[in-house]
Every structure is written in structure tokens, then in C-alpha cells.
Write a structure and sequence with these properties.
Blueprint: H1 3-26, H2 29-44, H3 54-72, H4 87-90, H5 98-105, H6 110-117, H7 121-133, H8 137-144, H9 148-163, H10 170-189, H11 192-198, E1 199-207, H12 209-213, E2 219-221, H13 223-230, E3 238-242, E4 245-252, E5 255-265, E6 268-275, H14 278-282, E7 286-288
Parallel strand pairs: 1-6
Antiparallel strand pairs: 1-2, 3-4, 3-7, 4-5, 5-6
Helix pairs in contact: 1-2, 1-3, 2-3, 3-7, 3-8, 7-8, 7-9, 8-9, 10-11, 11-13
């Protein structure tokens, strides 16, 4: 058996698992297959002999490919394609290990796919890899380009959104709006103490690639650092609903340039996403609120 045949056989042993990972991240069988095929191309161009854990390596590779595919999606989104992976798509075979067979047999309901589709790409990847496939945060962090702490925050926020898919209590939404409004007021006033009182100690401020190109830090972790970042700023940011969630918008000439999505839990802000990507901004439903 030559090296190419050996490598192809090893890849086929992992194909079913990779399809499942890609499908749960992408929600599309055709896109999942494309991601798996691309992972094979990357494996064939790599030094596979130097990879100690081929299955883990392939999982992170296909996840990174899927994340890039999510980020390039614009207005057109694939509809969920059924409540489970067919045997053909999942790649089930009589030779699969019982553990793999049990994993592949789990259904992926259309309702869950709809909820996952509402998550930010990095949130979705962190949640799927950690909560569905038990991939350690230390291995997910390089995939989403965040620190381990920030990756844990991404998964945590996604988990709450999935668990609260039936919709939040209206009273909770009012409280969240008041907290975000108070945060903006404290930011404009430059009050570090007021900002700190509204922030979770482990809060994470995460900026998308477009915001980073504008000069923002990719991530700011911890209440003191986030409070310092916002103190005396947000002068032009306006309170808004972002896809129904309390947030803030900075616009120039009526055109949104930066959107801040706030994640509130137990009356504290535990996460802020800074979004500047124009394609993403076009797809957000923004409702400006009175100050």
C-alpha cells in the first residue's frame, strides 16, 4: 500500500464524523460535503505523518473551513434540510465504531438549525465543537482566532441563546435595555465605577475582522479593561434593538458603521460584540430607540 492509498484510507475512516461536524456548523448537506472535500485536499498537501491525532486534526481543519464558509455567506442562506443526516450523507457503514455510530445517529432537528443559523459564525463553531463534540476550548480557540477565555464566552453565549430559543421574558428584555442604556450613559460620562458596576468580572469585548482593521482590539477581556476601553467614549452611539436584542449603533450620515451587540445575564453585561462587516450589517434588523 503506497502513502496516498494509506492516507485516503485513514481519511475515509474519519469521513462520517467530518460530515456530521460540517453539517452541524453549516446546516447544509451540500456545503458540508464541500467542506469535507476541501479538508481532504488540505490533508493531501500536508505532512500527515507528523500529525499525532489525525481525527482531531481533521476536525479542526473542517471546522475552520466551515467557519470561513459561514463568514462569506451574505443575503442568501441555505434552508435546513431535514431533521437528520441520511445514511448516505452521514457516511454510515458497517465498519463504523459503535461510539461513532451513536454519534452519527443523533438527530439534528430543523428547529435547532434555525437557532444555530441566528448565531454569529464564531459562536456557532464554538458551541457546536464544544457542546456537541466535546472538543476542548484550547483546541477551538485557534479555529475561531480567539483566546481560550474568549472562546469559552462565545460558547456560553451561544448555549444560552439555544436554550432560550422559545423567546425571552418581556420583563427581562426591558431590564436588558435599561442596563445597556445605563452602560452607554456611563461610557459617555467617563465613569469607570458606573461601568464596572454594570459589567460581569469576566466580560469579553470581541471585535470582528472589519472592526480590527479599523483599529479595534480583537478582544478585550475582564471588567477593568473593558470599562477602560469605553470610558469617555460612545458619544455618538445610539441605543437600538439589534435583531430584537438591546445594543448600540454608531452611524455616519445615517449609515450604520459599527454595531455593538450586548449580552446580558443576571443583570450584568458579560459580552459585547463589535460588528463592522458591511455584509453582516446589511443583514441586521436595526431599530433605533430614544436615549
Amino acid at each position: 500500500m503506497d502513502d496516498t492509498e494509506w492516507l485516503a484510507r485513514r481519511f475515509d475512516e474519519n469521513r462520517a464524523h467530518l460530515r456530521t461536524v460540517a453539517f452541524r456548523i453549516l446546516g447544509s448537506q451540500s456545503d458540508a460535503e464541500d467542506a469535507v472535500q476541501e479538508s481532504w485536499l488540505r490533508l493531501s498537501r500536508s505532512d500527515a505523518a507528523a500529525v499525532e491525532n489525525l481525527g482531531g486534526w481533521l476536525t479542526t481543519v473542517v471546522a475552520r473551513i466551515a467557519l470561513n464558509m459561514l463568514r462569506t455567506r451574505t443575503a442568501r442562506r441555505e434552508e435546513p434540510q431535514g431533521a437528520y443526516l441520511s445514511d448516505e450523507v452521514a457516511g454510515r457503514s458497517a465498519s463504523a465504531h459503535p461510539e461513532e455510530e451513536a454519534l452519527l445517529a443523533e438527530s439534528v432537528g430543523p428547529a435547532l438549525l434555525v437557532v444555530l443559523d441566528a448565531l454569529e459564525p464564531a459562536e456557532r463553531v464554538a458551541f457546536v465543537l464544544h457542546d456537541m463534540f466535546a472538543v476542548p476550548f484550547a483546541e477551538i480557540a485557534p479555529v475561531v482566532g480567539r483566546s481560550v477565555a474568549a472562546t469559552r464566552q462565545l460558547a456560553s453565549r451561544a448555549r444560552r441563546r439555544v436554550q432560550g430559543a422559545d423567546g425571552p421574558d418581556p420583563a427581562d428584555r426591558v431590564l436588558e435595555r435599561e442596563i445597556v442604556g445605563a452602560f452607554l450613559a456611563a461610557s459617555r460620562g467617563g465613569s469607570l465605577d458606573a461601568l464596572m458596576a454594570l459589567l460581569d468580572p469576566d466580560v469579553a469585548l470581541l471585535a470582528d475582522d472589519a472592526a480590527v482593521r479599523m483599529g479595534a482590539a480583537a478582544e478585550v477581556l475582564g471588567a477593568p479593561a473593558v470599562a477602560e476601553t469605553f470610558a469617555g467614549r460612545a458619544q455618538a452611539a445610539r441605543l437600538a434593538l439589534i435583531d430584537g436584542m438591546p445594543g448600540a449603533v454608531w452611524a455616519v450620515g445615517g449609515e450604520p458603521r459599527v454595531v455593538f451587540r450586548f449580552h446580558v445575564a443576571e443583570a450584568r453585561i458579560e459580552g459585547i460584540d463589535m460588528v463592522s462587516d458591511r455584509a453582516t450589517l446589511r443583514n441586521l434588523v436595526l431599530e433605533m430607540l430614544p436615549a
